């Protein structure tokens, strides 16, 4: 089994704020990330897929993977406010941990349609929020 990773970029803004908590408690928990008007990040997304080498000598057709990520992730998140524009975050705090889970869910939902009849599996999502922190989500069953 070989793993292949492709890298994508998008920019989005967020505000870390839990609506069920008080303003004071939100400020205490999230600090400057709770600033009312939000702030932006240039996210780097890495999608790792794994599988056997096919008859074409490849594990995955990168055009198909790019197409899926473009449709399901980039077009929906790039230059958006995660809090205001992305339905999954209407109640969920848009931390990068939660963003990784949301991205994995969207890719998983359309995976079989893009890669019918077996093919590569999605193995890992890695999301870089800044140069100082990154988040990895390992997917076993997808
Ligand atoms: Ni932030």
Structural write-up:
The protein is α+β, with helices and mostly antiparallel strands. 33% of the residues lie in helices and 31% in strands. The radius of gyration is 17 Å and the shape is elongated. The two termini are 16 Å apart. Nickel (II) ion binds at residues 14, 33, 39, 41. Residues 14, 33, 39, 41 line the site of nickel (II) ion (NI).
Topology (SSEs and partners):
Blueprint: E1 2-14, H1 23-30, E2 39-51, H2 62-77, E3 80-81, H3 82-85, H4 96-114, E4 121-130, E5 133-138
Helix pairs in contact: 2-4
This protein binds nickel (II) ion.
How would you summarize this macromolecular structure in one to three sentences?
The chain has 142 residues and is of the alpha+beta class.
Mean pLDDT: 95
Gyration radius (Cα, Å) is 17 Å
SSE-based structural type: alpha+beta
DSSP summary: helix tally: 4
Distance between the termini: 16 Å
**Biggest beta-sheet profile:** 5 strands, mixed
Write a concise keyword list for the protein shown above.
binds nickel (II) ion, alpha+beta, single chain, 4 helices
């Amino acid at each position: 089994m070989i793993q292949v990773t492709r890298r994508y970029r998008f920019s989005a803004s967020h505000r870390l704020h839990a609506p069920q908590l008080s303003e004071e408690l939100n400020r205490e928990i999230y600090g400057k990330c709770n600033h009312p008007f939000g702030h932006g990040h240039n996210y780097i997304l890495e999608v790792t897929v794994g599988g056997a080498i096919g008859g074409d000598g490849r594990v995955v057709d990168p055009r198909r993977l790019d197409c899926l990520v473009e449709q399901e992730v980039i077009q929906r998140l790039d230059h958006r406010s995660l809090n205001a524009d992305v339905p999954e975050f209407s109640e969920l705090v848009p931390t990068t941990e939660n963003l990784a889970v949301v991205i994995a869910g969207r890719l998983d939902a359309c995976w079989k349609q893009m890669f019918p009849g077996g093919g590569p599996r999605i193995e890992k999502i890695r999301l870089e929020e800044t140069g100082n922190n990154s988040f990895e989500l390992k997917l076993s069953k997808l």
